[in-house]
Write a structure and sequence with these properties.
Blueprint: H1 2-8, H2 14-25, E1 31-32, E2 38-39, H3 50-74, H4 82-91, H5 95-100, H6 118-147
Antiparallel strand pairs: 1-2
Helix pairs in contact: 2-3, 3-6
Length: about 160
């Protein structure tokens, strides 16, 4: 992809582009809900609605997926810092990370225990998490439709 950009613009700088593009995708400072948890600003009007909260969580994952796919094309060997890994592991609800805490980084479960292209690794896991959450949302919708009760709101992706 960089080659294509350079054909159009010989002065194209992928690092500068990535920095500007990444900055444009950043989620703006979040509001806080009634419990003090950070929530992502959306155009959704009903923050306590289960389905809208689920869509908001999916929106966060899609934004992060878009960032990692961009890096996959522009800088496939990009290395994420600790804060980015921490955010990734929370957003993808990594069970080993939840269980082991900081020991996770030295365990066999750690992504550093084998060589990988980090942006591709992030993209794969974000895509998998989106798929799982869409399936859960569909199942929850069927359950609600048949029982007429509201499920609990999951704000796990909205904590950033």
């Amino acid at each position: 992809m960089v080659k294509l950009f350079r054909e159009v613009d010989p002065d194209f700088d992928p690092k500068e582009f990535r920095a500007k593009y990444h900055h444009s995708l950043l989620v703006k400072p979040a509001d806080r809900d009634l419990n003090g948890r950070r929530i992502v600003k959306t155009k959704f009007q009903m923050k306590d609605d289960y389905f809208l909260s689920s869509l908001c969580n999916l929106q966060v994952l899609i934004i992060e997926l878009e960032k990692s796919l961009t890096l996959t094309e522009l800088d496939p060997e990009h290395k994420y810092d600790y804060a980015e890994w921490n955010k990734f592991l929370k957003l993808t609800e990594n069970e080993a990370y939840k269980t082991l805490g900081s020991a996770y980084w030295f365990s066999e479960e750690s992504p550093f225990s084998f060589p990988n292209f980090e942006p591709r690794y992030f993209a794969h896991h974000y895509l998998h998490q989106i798929d799982l959450r869409i399936q859960k949302l569909a199942l929850d919708y069927d359950t609600i439709a048949s029982s007429n009760r509201e499920p609990e709101i999951d704000n796990s992706a909205s904590k950033f």
